[in-house]
């Protein structure tokens, strides 16, 4: 696993931690996750829309940080999502944000696609299902459609 992939994996695992006050015994089954998809911003405490705006001007970096989303060359972000999470690009909203998802892993990721061939992970979640409208995931994280 490269540093880039480690950074993505660490940031996604951190984002998918159980919400405060929820016991570890509250682990849900794959079916329960699919019935109630959940998502987290790439920067704790910030709405994904605000993270998207921040990411528009961030430099490329192979490292994730708690106070900024991971932004790297398109090919690096795409390779990490495919290889580490089995995700494929599902849809792009009317703006510049793509939904990636994996039915096998049950994960999903929102990626800002910048015109400078850079992509930034702005949100991610669990409970992905091919049967759900991509619009639902954009709405779930406050990015409209």
Layout of helices and strands:
Elements: H1 3-15, H2 30-35, E1 38-41, H3 48-55, E2 71-73, H4 74-85, E3 88-92, E4 97-102, E5 107-113, E6 118-126, H5 134-140
Antiparallel strand pairs: 1-6, 2-6, 3-4, 4-5, 5-6
Helix pairs in contact: 1-4
Describe the fold and architecture:
This protein has 145 residues and is α+β, with helices and mostly antiparallel strands. The protein has one domain. Helices cover 32% and strands 23% of the residues. It is built from five helices and six strands; from the N terminus they run ααβαβαββββα. Strands 1, 2, 3, 4, 5 and 6 form a six-stranded antiparallel sheet that branches. A hairpin with a 4-residue loop joins strand 4 and strand 5 (107-113). Helix 1 crosses helix 4. The longest helix has 13 residues, at 3-15. The chain is globular, with a radius of gyration of 14 Å. Mean pLDDT is 81; it is low at 1-6 and 9-25.
Descriptive key words:
32% helix; 5 helices; 23% strand; alpha+beta; 145 residues; 6-stranded antiparallel sheet
């Amino acid at each position: 696993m490269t540093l880039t992939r480690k950074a993505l994996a660490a940031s996604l695992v951190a984002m998918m931690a159980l919400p405060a006050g929820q016991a570890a015994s509250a682990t849900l089954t794959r079916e329960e996750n699919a019935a109630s998809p959940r998502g987290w911003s790439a920067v704790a405490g910030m709405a994904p829309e605000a993270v998207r705006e921040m990411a528009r001007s961030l430099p490329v970096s192979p490292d994730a940080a708690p106070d900024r989303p991971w932004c790297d060359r398109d090919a690096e972000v795409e390779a990490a999502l495919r290889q580490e999470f089995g995700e494929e690009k599902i849809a792009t909203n009317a703006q510049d944000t793509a939904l990636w998802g994996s039915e096998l892993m049950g994960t999903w990721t929102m990626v800002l696609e910048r015109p400078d061939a850079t992509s930034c992970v702005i949100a991610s979640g669990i409970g992905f299902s091919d049967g759900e409208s991509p619009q639902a995931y954009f709405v779930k994280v406050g990015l409209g459609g």
